[in-house]
Specification:
This protein has 303 residues and is α/β, with parallel strands linked by helices. The protein is 33% helix and 16% strand. The protein is built from 9 helices and 12 strands. It has an 8-stranded parallel barrel, surrounded by 7 helices. Strands 5-6 form a two-stranded antiparallel ribbon. It has a two-stranded antiparallel ribbon with strand order 11-12. Strand 3, helix 3 and strand 4 form a beta-alpha-beta unit. Helix 1 packs parallel to helix 8. The longest helix has 14 residues. The termini are far apart. The relative contact order is 0.17.
Length: 303
């Protein structure tokens, strides 16, 4: 009889969590025309992206002049607007140290009390240089922010830019500064941090604690490559205008958040991975269902 070669199963047929980063701290509408900056603009973009397959949103706040702000009141406006338009989405707020380093200002976003408290908050596990300046995250600052999140029942959205930060994660878990659940965004391609390469991917993934839920983000032209590699390897994705202003880099075609989400969802489906609903994403990460938003979600229809 002729030898019949068995077909290997796909790496993963699990749903993929699509984490939307719509705004960030750097893009301005003069150069990134579709970046949302007001609470209404952010909420409208989030709603469209949830319809396209996003299940969580990583929120930054901007003032009326488009400059980043740490003020709780602005975060409250944004969260209230987002929850009104997309009540099921997982809310993540930033505690970025890119423009300010003191813990009190960085932690203002954790005290949002209108509409719904954030379920998660970003926590960068080390300092680094971006092209426009440093992001400073001293060990004592990381521990203080982690403590404030724990006190408020907020799960860290851990940000890793190189293998050293993955090693820090392991240390923080051993010393009980961090505990489960562990959700990690690994960001590739920023100048001054790890580039997107097989050897770097292997090193960082090998250094993560067992049971971590991880996602890839790519800066600029690396976004699509990083997202595709993550889905092929069984991970999840972060996508949006915070990280990448262009839909097509060769011609510098301006992107929109919904188009970026639609593209990554299409690729995920081609790889056999449907976008996770917010309820399924909470199960994958290990988040409790918020009591004020616990209600059945519409079924995701396969296309």
């Amino acid at each position: 009889m002729p030898h019949t070669r068995r077909r290997s199963p796909p790496v993963s047929e699990d749903p993929v969590i699509v984490n939307l980063c719509p705004t960030g701290m750097v893009p301005r509408r003069a150069t990134v025309p579709h970046v949302p900056v007001t609470p209404a603009q952010i909420a409208a973009d989030v709603a469209r992206c949830v319809d396209a397959g996003a299940s969580m949103v990583h929120l930054h706040a901007r003032g009326d002049d488009e400059a980043p702000t740490w003020r709780r009141e602005r975060f409250e406006e944004i969260v209230a607007a987002v929850v009104d338009r997309a009540p099921e989405v997982i809310i993540v707020v930033t505690t970025s140290g890119r423009d300010w380093q003191d813990v009190d200002r960085r932690a203002e976003s954790l005290d949002v009390h209108e509409a719904a408290r954030p379920e998660m908050a970003s926590l960068t596990l080390g300092s680094m240089n971006f092209p426009t300046g440093p992001s400073v995250n001293a060990p004592e600052t990381i521990a203080a922010l982690a403590s404030r999140m724990r006190d408020r029942g907020i799960v860290p959205e851990l940000e890793i830019f190189d293998v050293g930060m993955a090693n820090v994660l392991g240390h923080l878990r051993k010393t009980a500064v961090l505990a489960d659940p562990t959700y990690v965004n690994i960001l590739w391609g920023s100048r001054g941090t790890a580039d997107l390469s097989a050897i770097n991917i292997a090193a960082v993934l090998a250094a993560l604690p067992a049971g971590s839920t991880w996602a890839f983000a790519g800066i600029g032209r690396f976004q699509l490559r990083a997202n595709t590699m993550a889905m092929a390897l069984g991970g999840h994705v972060r996508v949006g205008l915070e990280d990448n202003p262009y839909e097509e880099w060769a011609g510098r075609t301006p992107a929109t958040n919904p188009r970026l989400v639609e593209r990554v969802v299409k690729i995920g489906r081609a790889l056999g991975r449907e976008p996770a609903s917010a309820a399924r994403a909470r199960e994958i990460i290990g988040l409790p269902v918020p009591h004020d938003r616990a209600r059945p979600e519409p079924a995701v229809v396969s296309r």
